[in-house]
């Protein structure tokens, strides 16, 4: 459902750009010499959707947790014997990103872009658990919300189509180094069961967009997908981590650029 929403937004943006281009086909193009300048600068405003790619262990339902492996449950269970996890899913949420654009022209069809950014977002890991109390088995869904504040350093290669009056389409790809300022990986309190993520990660990025040449600046609409390269979960031998073989980040971004 979420992917369909992103597609709808991008299609509407595409139609807006196309209509704008053809409605001005007989007019003088804006910023005629813009693409011949070696450097451009600007900023971005973006909506992001952060999520996880969760790979659970093959024997997740056969693992039982006791004692300090289990967090305290506020449900009046003085005789909690053990617990198990039957499934783990990731629940995405929306956030926002702001950044500064540095663009270097390296040919008629290629640009090199560096966009240091600050991204805010939230993700939730949902655990389908079974709690064993005396002779009873209770089902409980445990949601662990993880907040992130990323300082990001994307380095991107942009391939542009021929310009059609005041419109130019492009694809973009590259890598991004990310630092999570909200990382909890250094906190070692015994009663802190929140899943903790390592501070740094590297992403691969792929996207597409359209540039619209206005009278005084270039306006861009872009959709990108980012996938983390490493397992970012800190293993702590408890109910929230032992059932996960690997946890990787992914992010969708719908971006407006102003250059």
Task: Give the CATH topology.
Answer: Porin
Shape: elongated
Sheet/helix structural class: mainly beta
CATH class: Mainly Beta
Number of helices in the DSSP assignment: 1
How many separate domains make up the residues? Answer: 1
Give the beta-strand count: 10
Largest sheet: 10 strands, antiparallel
Give the SSE string: HEEEEEEEEEE
Name given to the CATH architecture? Beta Barrel
Strand percent estimate: over 45%
Overall helicity: under 10%
Q: On the 0-100 scale, what is the average pLDDT?
A: 86
Q: What's the N-to-C terminus distance?
A: 32 Å
Low-pLDDT runs of 5+ residues are none
Radius of gyration: 23 Å
Characterize the structure shown:
The chain is mainly beta and 259 residues long. The longest helix is centred in the N-terminal third of the chain and has 22 residues, at 2-23. It is elongated and about 80 Å long. Strands 1, 2, 3, 4, 5, 6, 7, 8, 9 and 10 form a 10-stranded antiparallel β-sheet that branches. The protein has one helix at residues 2-23, and strands at 39-56, 80-91, 93-105, 110-114, 117-133, 136-160, 167-180, 200-213, 218-228, 244-258. The chain is built from 1 helix and 10 strands, in the order αββββββββββ. The mean pLDDT is 86. It has one domain (2-58, 90-122, 146-258): Porin (Beta Barrel), CATH 2.40.160.20. A hairpin with a 2-residue loop joins strand 5 and strand 6.
